[in-house]
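Figure 3 (text version): C-alpha cells given as input.
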C-alpha cells in the first residue's frame, strides 16, 4: 500500500504535463540554483550517479551459480555479461529466480537441519560428488547430507567474495538512491527519466540482495563431498542420462523462467544451469511462487516507470514511447503469469496452451524492445532538461538545528 501511495505522489510531482509546446522553456525558469557546490548538481553528477547505481544493481548484485570448473576466464566473463544483460532486460525474472532459490534453501535448511547458506550452496551447485557431479537434487541430498552437515558454515562463507558487511553496504547503496529520489519528491524537485529508470533498478536490487543475503557470492570452485556408506534414497537409472539433442534453447529459456528443469540431470553434468534451483513441492507450488514473485515485482518495476507519466519530455514521440513501453512492461509479466497459472490449474486444453505460447512468443519480441526503448529515451531526454532538475536536495531541512 505504501508503495502505491509513493507511485501516486511521484506521478503528481514528476513534472508538468506535455500539453503545451512552450512547457520546456517555461519550466526552465521555474527553479534554478546559484551554481555553488552546496546547491547545484551537474549533468555529469546525474548520469554518473545513475550509471554507478545500475552497475551495482546488475553486475555487483548478481550471485551466480557455481560455474563449470573447466571454463576459462573469458568464458566466465561472458557468462556474467549474459546474466547482466538478462538483469537489464528482465530484472523481474531474476527476482523470481532469487525467490525460488530462497524458498528452496529455506526448505533444505528446515528439512536437513543445516543453515540457509548450506541450502543456497546446494542450489548453486556448490557441493559435488567425488566424480565431479553436482549434488543438486532432492534424490541425491540424503545420501550426501551426512558429509554436507560436517562442513561448517564459515568454510562455505570463506569461498564467498562478499561478507555480511559488504552486502549490507551494497543494500544501503540502493536504499540511499531511493532516499535521494524521495527527498527530491518531498522538496518538489523533478527527477529525470534516467533517474526514474534507475530507481526501478534500485528497488529491485534491494529485493534481490535481501533474497540472496545468505548466498555466497562469485564462488568459482565447488566443495567435494563423499557419499555415505548407507544409501538412504538410491538414485534410479532413468534419472542419470538424457540425450543432449533433445534439449533446445527454447527449453532452457522456459525452464529458467518457470523453474522446472526437467532436462537437467546432475549425474550427467559438471555444473548446474544458470537459473537452476532445487525443486520444492509440487509443480503448482513452484508456479505459485513464480506468480507471486514475478507478477508482483514485474508490476512494481513497470509501475515505477509509469510514475513518470506526466514528466516533462522534449517531444511528443518520446512521451508516447515512454508511456506505451511502461504500460507494457508493467502488464506483460502479470498477464504471462496469469495465463501460466490458468494452464497449470485448469484442465489440459489445446486452446489455452496455444494462447499462452502465442502470447509468450510475441512478448519475447515486444518486451525486450520496450525495455530498449525505455533505456534509449532515458538518455535522449537528457538533451533538454529544466534548470530545476539541477537543483540539489537541501539536506539541512532534515537536520535539527536552531
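Below: residues designed for each position.
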Amino acid at each position: 500500500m505504501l508503495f502505491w501511495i509513493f507511485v501516486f505522489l511521484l506521478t503528481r510531482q514528476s513534472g508538468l504535463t506535455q500539453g503545451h509546446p512552450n512547457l520546456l522553456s517555461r519550466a526552465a525558469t521555474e527553479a534554478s540554483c546559484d551554481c555553488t557546490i552546496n546547491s547545484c548538481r551537474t549533468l555529469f553528477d546525474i548520469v554518473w550517479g545513475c550509471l554507478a547505481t545500475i552497475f551495482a544493481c546488475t553486475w555487483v548484485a548478481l550471485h551466480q551459480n557455481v560455474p563449470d570448473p573447466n571454463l576459462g576466464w573469458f568464458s566466465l566473463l561472458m557468462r556474467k555479461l549474459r546474466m547482466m544483460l538478462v538483469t537489464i532486460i528482465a530484472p523481474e525474472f531474476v527476482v523470481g529466480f532469487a525467490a525460488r532459490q530462497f524458498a528452496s534453501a529455506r526448505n533444505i535448511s528446515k528439512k536437513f537441519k543445516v543453515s540457509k547458506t548450506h541450502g543456497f550452496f546446494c542450489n548453486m551447485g556448490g557441493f559435488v560428488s567425488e566424480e565431479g557431479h553436482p549434488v543438486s537434487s532432492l534424490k541425491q541430498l540424503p545420501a550426501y547430507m551426512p558429509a554436507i552437515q560436517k562442513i561448517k558454515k564459515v568454510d562455505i562463507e570463506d569461498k564467498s567474495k562478499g561478507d555480511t558487511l559488504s552486502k549490507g553496504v551494497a543494500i544501503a547503496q540502493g536504499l540511499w538512491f531511493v532516499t535521494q529520489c524521495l527527498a527530491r519528491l518531498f522538496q518538489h524537485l523533478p527527477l529525470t527519466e534516467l533517474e526514474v529508470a534507475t530507481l526501478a533498478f534500485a528497488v529491485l536490487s534491494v529485493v534481490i540482495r535481501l533474497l540472496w543475503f545468505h548466498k555466497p557470492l562469485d564462488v568459482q570452485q565447488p566443495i567435494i563431498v563423499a557419499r555415505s556408506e548407507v544409501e538412504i534414497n538410491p538414485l534410479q537409472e532413468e534419472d542419470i542420462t538424457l540425450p543432449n539433442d533433445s534439449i533446445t534453447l527454447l527449453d532452457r529459456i522456459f525452464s529458467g523462467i518457470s523453474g522446472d528443469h526437467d532436462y537437467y540431470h546432475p549425474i550427467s553434468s559438471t555444473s548446474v544451469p544458470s537459473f537452476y534451483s532445487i525443486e520444492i513441492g509440487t509443480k503448482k507450488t513452484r508456479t505459485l511462487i513464480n506468480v507471486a514473485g514475478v507478477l508482483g515485482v514485474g508490476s512494481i518495476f513497470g509501475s515505477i516507470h509509469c510514475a513518470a507519466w506526466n514528466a516533462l519530455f522534449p517531444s511528443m514521440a518520446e512521451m508516447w514511447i515512454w508511456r506505451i513501453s511502461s504500460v507494457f512492461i508493467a502488464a506483460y509479466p502479470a498477464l504471462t503469469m496469469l495465463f501460466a497459472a490458468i494452464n497449470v490449474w485448469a484442465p489440459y486444453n489445446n486452446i489455452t496452451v496455444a494462447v499462452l505460447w502465442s502470447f509468450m512468443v510475441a512478448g519475447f519480441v515486444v518486451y525486450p524492445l520496450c525495455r530498449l526503448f525505455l533505456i534509449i529515451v532515458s538518455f535522449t531526454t537528457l538533451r533538454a532538461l529544466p534548470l530545476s532538475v539541477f537543483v540539489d536536495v537541501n539536506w539541512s531541512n532534515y537536520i535539527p538545528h536552531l
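The first strand starts at residue 127 and ends at 128.
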